[in-house]
Amino acid sequence: MKKFMILCLLFSLCACSATETANQETDAPAACDASSECTDDNETETAEFTEISMEDALDYFRQGKSGVLFFGFTSCPWCKQARPILKKVSAETGVPVYYIKVRDEDGNLTYSDEQREELSQYIGDYMSVNKDQDNKLWLYVPLVINVKDGKAVDGHEGTLKGHNAEKEKLTAKQKKKLKKIYKRVLTE
Q: Which chain regions cross the lipid bilayer (predicted)?
């Protein structure tokens, strides 16, 4: 009887690990809507970027500054997977990244509708339309924008098309592809 129970336990453990692998084939969104509460039970620390406010980020455009802006939030599953890759590219290229947290720890937005609308005037080409919000441009994260002299010259929203960070981790091949994208954005 003990052997039978052990075999059943081993079989169920094997079945669970096979289920996780099967979830990697999905066609889901590649970004987290900053207005929704995407969460992941595996909290990780924010990569070591210089944190600035949304108002400071807007000043990059208003005042003709240059720098790389990374919009995200701590519990966003896509951001959690993108951060280490972006941090590595930042270290390799020597390009500093400025982090704008778009949600606080309670899940509240850290910016106003007016700030989002102003931001969309500067980076609208890198924002997506939210069909649930009267087709307005919306801030989906992670969003990395390279700003030169107050103008967005390159950017990338989300991780990769079809990647659902709520269900799967980036594969080594996907990480390499995202790293290449971030390198392009940072060095544009």
A: none
